[in-house]
Structure formats: C-alpha cells, structure tokens
Design goal:
Distance between the termini: 41 Å
Structural class: mainly beta
Strand content: 35-45%
Shape: globular
Strand order of the largest sheet: 3-24-23-22-21
Number of strands: 31
Helix content: under 10%
Length: 365
C-alpha cells in the first residue's frame, strides 16, 4: 500500500458567516504582546462578492477533478495536484497522469483530508549543511502525530518530519526568498493556539512561535519586492479576513484586511504570488473542491485564469493574489511603503476554494 502513517486527525471549522461588503480600506496593524495597533489607511474601490464589473475577469472551470484540494507547479511548468487523497500530474494542455501511486507512494489520511503541499525548487540551507532537491513535494501528513511527508519526483514517499506538539496542521510554504534560511514553513494548532514551524532540509524542526493568530489555508513567502513585508510568511485568517505577516522571530503583523466575506468555509483561504514574467503570458490556477451539504458546495474543478485577463484587471508581477474559500472572489494586494488592494476576478457561484493560488509564467524570468 502507499504511505499511510498513524490515525487520523481532522480540523473543525466554525459555521460560515458572511458580512455585508463595505468600502475597501488597507490596514497595517502590528500585533505583539501586549497588543499595539498601528494603522495605515488607504482608500480604494471595492466590488461586492459575486458582483462583476463589466471588464473584470472570471475564473473558468478548466478541468473536472473530483476531490481536488490543492495544486502546485513543477520547474517544467507541469502541475501537481492532490485529489481524494491521491497525487496526479497535469500538463498545460490538461493531460493528467497518476503520481506517487506505487506501494511506496503517498495516500492522504482520508479522501477528504486537506493535505496541502508545496513543490520546492533547489534550495541550500547553509545552517543545516544540506539542500532541498528541485521538484520534491512536501505534503501535510494529517495522521497522528501530524507531520510532513516528502515525495520525490519519481513518486517515492517517506515521513520527513514529525510535529507532535500540535494536534493538526493547516498550511505549508517554501522560503524561496531566504529570510527564514530557505526552510519549509508549516502552521499547526492545539487548543486554539497556532504554532509556526521552520523545517530544514534534514527534517529538523524549529518552533518560531506558539502564539500566532489563527492561520490556515494556502500560505506563501513574500518575494523581495513586497515592500515592508518582503520575505515574511503571509497567511490568511478566514474568520476575520485578516492577512498576517510572520517574521523569523515569530512576530505577527496584519498586512491588510480586504473587504471580503469572512467566516469559516467563507473568508480568505488561498493566496499566491505572481512571479516575474507572468505579465508576458501564463495562467493562474485554483482548486474548487466539491463539498456536499455546505453553503458553498463547490464544483470539483480546477479553475484557471490567463495572464492576459489578470493584467487587464491591473494585476502586476509581484502582486499577491488572494481568494475567498466561498465563491473564490479574488483580489490582488500590492505592498510598498503601504499596501493597496484591487479587485482582480470573480469566482464560481457556490465555489469551495482550497489550498494555494498557483501562478505559472510561460517564460519565468
């Protein structure tokens, strides 16, 4: 059988709620103990969720994939997907192939487990004296105790790190900028407390904080061009709508609070940065998972949006794309001295978005 470790732990989410849309404001708040609030406000125009401007692009239902929960991209531009607990690869023209399905492959804890993952580039961790290998997959293993599994490009899986101080895991990212020493970054929780871990290429883990705000979903490390938050870990809180930046000391700072719906299974869930070269061509992708008996039942689809459509909405290389879990309403965030928000795309009616926003340039620079 494929790799399956331990018994299952699942996350429980609060019931979804939606608040009325309001005029966009961009907020920068610093959250440290004791809590101090520093506000920087810039006013922008907002488009209510589900209401499209005449020239605003919309995500298209590109491929039907039952149980799709997350996506990532390899160095050759092919996608890796997780659906119903199993991996697959997908070419840009939509041809799919099973991946990591042999006896030493990987199977999620349950078919509906939110086994988010990343595909890493070749990165050297100087402090550990080793390197991550290009196109290795690192996936949240939501068994007990939770941890991270590694799947190499040939589909061989192994337990990479165990994180026994938390009950479950909620997000994973790769530090491609270097502020965290090119390590993996993972969020987890126990007793309503959120921890952030850094994991080196030898599987050694360090706890950055045990007192982070609630974080889960598609998390990402900001590029060097992301203003005052360059290199930090950016993570969403679907219940409040806040986007947080976590620095290597574990300090959490609110980046911005876009005017989007909030609540469990409703608010900001998926994020991803627009890479250099994307404005010249490429596609962005989202996982829209079928979720029966939910206010947002999903379509079991991979959603897609072209670079031309996003740039027509004002999206630029280096922006952060943020999508809500309910419907997939998408905004772009741009940070310099302050951060601003623009409406980028409408989602699918009833869509149930999971995992990362994956943005792939045709010709990366």
């Amino acid at each position: 059988m494929a790799l399956f470790l331990g018994s299952v732990t699942r996350r429980r989410r609060p019931a979804p709620t939606i608040f009325n849309m309001r005029r966009h404001t961009s907020l920068a708040l610093s959250a440290v103990a004791p809590l101090r609030l520093i506000l920087t406000i810039s006013v922008l125009c907002a488009t209510p969720a589900g209401t499209a401007l005449a020239d605003q692009p919309a995500w298209e239902q590109w491929q039907h994939v039952p149980g799709i929960v997350d996506l990532a991209a390899r160095s050759d531009g092919r996608l890796v997907g997780m659906a119903s607990g199993r991996f697959f690869t997908l070419t840009r023209d939509g041809q799919s192939s099973p991946f990591a399905t042999a006896s030493d492959g990987y199977t999620g804890a349950t078919p509906d487990a939110e086994s988010y993952f990343v595909v890493v580039p070749a990165l050297t961790v100087d402090a550990a004296g080793c390197s991550f290998n290009a196109d290795d997959v690192f996936v949240l293993d939501l068994t007990t105790p939770p941890g991270v599994a590694r799947v190499d490009p040939q589909g061989h899986a192994s337990r990479f790190a165990t994180l026994s101080s938390v009950d479950t895991l909620g997000g994973i990212a790769s530090d491609t900028t270097g502020l965290f020493g090119h390590r993996l970054l993972v969020t987890g929780s126990r007793n309503n407390q959120t921890s952030v871990f850094a994991i080196d290429c030898a599987g050694g883990s360090t706890t950055l904080t045990n007192t982070a705000p609630p974080l889960e979903g598609g998390i990402a490390v900001a590029p060097a061009t992301f203003g005052q938050f360059a290199g930090t870990l950016i993570a969403p809180d679907e219940n409040t709508g806040q986007l947080w930046a976590i620095d290597p000391s574990g300090r959490a700072t609110v980046v911005i609070v876009p005017s989007l719906p909030t609540g469990g299974d409703t608010g900001v869930e998926s994020i991803g940065f627009v890479p250099p070269g994307f404005s010249s061509g490429g596609f962005a992708y989202l996982a829209d998972r079928g979720t029966p008996n939910n206010p947002f039942p999903g379509t079991d689809s991979i959603l897609r949006l072209s670079a031309a459509a996003l740039t027509s909405a004002g999206v630029q290389d280096g922006d952060l794309l943020v999508s809500t879990e309910g419907n997939g309403t998408t905004v772009a965030i741009r940070c310099a001295a302050t951060c601003t928000v623009i409406s980028a795309a409408t989602g699918t009616n009833g869509g149930h978005i999971e995992g990362h926003v994956v943005v792939v340039a045709d010709q990366p620079t």
